[in-house]
Design a protein that fits this description.
Length: 233
Amino acid sequence: MKMWDVRTDACVATVGRCSSAILCMEYDDSTGILAAGGRDVVANIWDIRAGKEMHKLVGHSKWIRSIRMVGDTVITGSDDWTARMWSVSQGTCDAVLACHDGPVSCVEYSMADRGIITGSSDGLLRFWEYDDGAIRCIKNVTIHNAAVLCINAGEYWLGTGAADNSMSLFHRSQERLGGHSTAALKMSGWQLYRTPQKAVATVRCAASDLERKRICAGGRNGLLRLWDATLTK
């Protein structure tokens, strides 16, 4: 793995080497922590500033397809049909999420409620949340008829993209309590808001601009589609 200076196009560091192809990675610039996973079924954690590897997270039995890191938490999704939640500082597996009937192709972490969203080749979205100290699946959504390839979540908006060339937008309401606006923070509060017209190519990635309430999706045909979630057309 290499780090580059985008201003000079120069390689400034070689971080480390995995034993096989790297399929996904996350970097936290505030902490200097880099997480990566791939075909060697191990999630590797590096401290870039200290110049050392922190942990090898072992537990998956097949390729790691997706990884998401927020604070001290890393979520991984694998072809072994499971997602796992890990502690960055401790290097331990805190939970195994095993309900999908196919490889877990994408994972997302909701900071507002410490909830997790997983997408799979079975076409399902699963929403997970903590209950009495344990994490469990509290909601399944069948909206795509092919593999869910990407998930992007904010506090109130969530976008997904799938291999059936479709994209879905979810929303959860805001409530006024004591003059302040807060989210209905349970994962079960996510409701399907709109399914835009299908693209002509598989939707491979999605990103959201929370302040402007916009969702952007990229497809295999090289096109980006920008949606304003507040508009009806």
